């Protein structure tokens, strides 16, 4: 037995065979055409591989969730083989000398726009399916793994995982992950917690020396990883797993209880999510709403910008699933550790403090408007609130509000339905925003305090930098004062204030948040019942 010690970043015991995550390091965004014969053969091979993937997905999904849910993959299969779609690709290769990638991109644009312009709702929604099929073909052409796991239940091992790789791990088969690098407050770790996936990071070089296929047990609370454990260790960890499951069952009793503190004050306990896949956990936890939907994950691990239609469909799905409870959707917070090649952002020396999040959106109103239109359109189907990240000044907020007003005017003109009362709020996650929170509170409907970045910027500690983590003290008096100041400014202006950073899920901080008077705490779904219990006990 080999024992490795790392940092547990997402609780729970997981066990399975080690599967090393493979990523194609030589991936290049575009490729020059190598001649029609070669490109045609590449396209045809990709088409056949995509068909095989879709058949398997259909069968797997049918077994897991039933025929109705699986039907989508048959629709994709039909699109893949649609004669017009295929002709469009092959003629671009034959007659215009395009590479397979370029030809697929052109067919994708042509067909998705054609569907998007249709009057019928059902047909319009097919635009997103065309894009999905095209993305699948492009992924195959670039040699990207469809699933890093080979479809078998496993524990994924990697030097490190990016946040989007983590979000895309196949939850049906990945039981947990272990990495050589990583830090507790990175988005990778946050995503593991959101997904309820046990994880240990910071295992160092000894992890690389382990072998594919070996049996591993990991404890995401203590940070211990056991490779080829002996019988006594397996028995101990199995008992621990059962103990934790029983604890979760006890807490589940609070699922339908409102979190009312002993002094009679109700605090909303909401969920943070990153994708549609998290909705089941939100329902299981009995969340009062969604306090943070990190919507940037709809932009990552793609080859091109998502369309308004795709975004609208995702937002609408979340809004409908929450049945009238508030869903706070944060606009694109890309940059720093969350990168998408097609944004073509230049490399930066210090990306956490660079050209990111709202700065990109304000500089790229085309991208921002697409997202805002999708959000407003989806607001007709539930209670959506829109939240803007990384705010540092009042002028940014005024610019955002002007754009939102333009989008609303456009939708009215088009007679597209939307909710006229959509709340607009900001994240308070920079010291500047906290210090001028009195001025910002006059301009918005709510605040949500992002303690992850607020800690990073207040204490000048990179949240991703493992050796610097001892300085990342979320209980530092400077941070507590900024939180108190923000809550006071909000309440003076008559607006509500939540906390959606990781600190909201820390039961030892619940008393502080009750004391300063926050109205909402938002966290990974699995933490909700634990925090409800803390509030109820005062
Ligand atoms: C935060 O900074 O606290 C936050 C919630 O946003 P993110 O972790 O996505 O940066
Ligand atoms: Mg943040």
Hetero ligands: phosphoenolpyruvate, magnesium ion
Distance between the termini: 44 Å
Indicate the overall shape: globular
Unreliable stretches (pLDDT < 50, length at least 5) are 24-30, 145-149
Q: What structural class do you assign from the helix and strand content? A: alpha/beta
Helix tally? 19
Query: What percent strand?
Result: 5-15%
Q: Could you give a short account of the major beta sheet?
A: 8 strands, mixed
In brief, what are we looking at here?
The protein is an alpha/beta fold. The chain has 19 helices and 16 strands. It has helices at residues 36-65, 67-81, 83-96, 100-116, 121-141, 163-167, 187-195, 231-252, 279-285, 308-321, 358-363, 365-378, 394-414, 431-435, 437-441, 451-458, 477-492, 510-516, 528-537, and strands spanning 2-5, 7-10, 13-20, 154-158, 174-179, 199-201, 215-219, 224-227, 268-273, 290-294, 326-330, 383-388, 423-428, 446-449, 496-499, 520-523.
Explained architecture:
This protein has 538 residues and is α/β, with parallel strands linked by helices. Helix content is 46%, strand content 15%. The chain contains 19 helices and 16 strands. The strands form 2 sheets. Strands 1-8-7-3-4-5-6-2 form an 8-stranded mixed β-sheet. An 8-stranded parallel β-barrel has the order 9-10-11-12-13-14-15-16, surrounded by 5 helices. Helix 2 packs across helix 5. The longest helix has 30 residues. The protein is globular and about 70 Å long. The two termini are 44 Å apart. 44% of the residues are buried. About 2% of the residues have low confidence. The site of phosphoenolpyruvate has 11 residues, from strand 10 and helix 16.
């Amino acid at each position: 037995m080999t024992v490795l010690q790392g940092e547990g970043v997402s609780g729970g015991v997981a066990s399975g065979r080690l599967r090393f995550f493979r990523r194609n390091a030589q991936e290049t965004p575009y490729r020059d055409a190598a001649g029609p014969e070669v490109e045609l053969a590449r396209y045809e091979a990709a088409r056949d591989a995509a068909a095989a993937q879709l058949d398997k997905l259909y069968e797997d999904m049918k077994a897991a969730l039933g025929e109705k849910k699986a039907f989508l993959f048959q629709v994709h299969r039909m699109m893949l083989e649609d004669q017009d779609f295929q002709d469009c690709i092959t003629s671009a290769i034959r007659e215009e000398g395009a590479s397979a990638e370029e030809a697929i991109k052109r067919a994708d644009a042509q067909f998705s726009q054609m569907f998007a312009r249709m009057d019928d709702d059902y047909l319009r929604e097919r635009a997103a399916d065309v894009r999905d099929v095209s993305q699948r073909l492009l992924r195959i052409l670039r040699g990207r793994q469809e699933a890093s796991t080979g479809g078998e239940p496993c524990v994924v091992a990697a030097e490190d995982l990016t946040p989007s790789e983590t979000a895309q791990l196949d939850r049906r088969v990945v039981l947990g992950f272990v990495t050589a690098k990583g830090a507790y407050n990175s988005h990778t770790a946050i995503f593991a917690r959101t997904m309820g996936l046990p994880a240990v990071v910071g295992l160092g070089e000894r992890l690389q020396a382990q072998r594919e296929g070996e049996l591993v047990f990991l404890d995401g609370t203590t940070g211990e990883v056991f490779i080829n454990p002996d019988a006594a260790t397996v028995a101990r960890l199995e008992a621990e797993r059962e103990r934790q499951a029983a604890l979760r069952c006890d807490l589940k009793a609070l699922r339908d209880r409102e979190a009312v503190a002993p002094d009679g004050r109700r605090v909303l306990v909401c969920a943070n999510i990153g994708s549609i896949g998290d909705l089941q956990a939100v329902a299981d936890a009995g969340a009062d709403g969604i306090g943070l939907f990190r919507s940037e994950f709809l932009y990552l691990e793609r080859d091109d910008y998502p369309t308004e239609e795709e975004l609208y469909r995702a937002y609408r799905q979340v809004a409908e699933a929450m049945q009238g409870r508030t869903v706070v959707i944060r606009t694109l917070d890309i940059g720093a550790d969350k990168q998408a090649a097609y944004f073509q952002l230049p490399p930066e020396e210090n990306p956490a403090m660079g050209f990111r999040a709202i700065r990109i959106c304000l500089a790229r109103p085309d991208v921002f408007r697409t997202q805002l239109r999708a959000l407003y359109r989806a607001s007709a189907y539930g209670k959506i609130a829109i939240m803007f990240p990384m705010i540092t000044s009042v002028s940014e907020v005024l610019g955002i509000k002007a754009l939102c007003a333009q989008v609303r005017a456009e939708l009215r003109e088009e007679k597209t339905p939307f909710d006229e009362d959509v709340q607009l709020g900001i994240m308070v996650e920079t010291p500047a925003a906290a210090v001028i929170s009195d001025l910002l509170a006059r301009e918005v409907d709510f605040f949500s305090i992002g303690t992850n970045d607020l800690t990073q910027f207040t204490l000048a500690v990179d949240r991703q930098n493992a050796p610097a983590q001892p300085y990342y003290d979320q209980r530092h008096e400077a941070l507590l004062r900024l939180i108190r100041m923000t809550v006071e400014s909000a309440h003076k202006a008559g607006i509500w204030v939540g906390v959606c950073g990781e600190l909201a899920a820390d039961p030892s901080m619940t008393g502080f948040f009750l004391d300063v008077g926050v109205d909402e705490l938002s966290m990974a779904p699995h933490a909700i019942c634990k925090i409800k219990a803390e509030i109820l006990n005062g």
